[in-house]
Amino acid sequence: MLNSMLRALLCAGALTAIATSCAYAENSVKVGQTAKGATLVDARGMTLYTFAKDADGKSACNGPCAANWPPVTAASDDKPSGKYSVITRDDGSKQWAYGGKPLYSWVKDTKPGDTTGDGFLNGAWRVAQP
Length: 130
Known about the structure:
The protein has one domain (25-127). Mean pLDDT is 84; it is low at 1-24. A hairpin with a 2-residue loop joins strand 6 (94-98) and strand 7. Strands 4, 5, 6 and 7 form a 4-stranded antiparallel sheet that branches. A two-stranded antiparallel ribbon has the order 1-2. It has a two-stranded antiparallel sheet with strand order 3-8. With 130 residues, the protein is α+β, with helices and mostly antiparallel strands. It is built from 4 helices and 8 strands.
């Protein structure tokens, strides 16, 4: 409860000097520009991806896969809105999804705007676009 109240205060701007991000999809995930056009990016501006093998709002990327394609994690009290949702992964952790598709980053992208994972694994990995 206290954690939720503190987060609400941070998001409301009461403590903006120490706030780095709020726990809402529109602040964790946003639209940025890459060579692929409008692309979903994380709070650091890194490109996000979807995986074709994910189905029914469930991640198929676990273990070594998730080490290379880190899931965009969500806190248990995050409040999704619009096309954003939060799914539960096999390990019980929470992950952001857009349009029902879980979102991931790619360890080989080194700077904002990189899209080196697009088309990986015979096209199974794609840049997430709004």
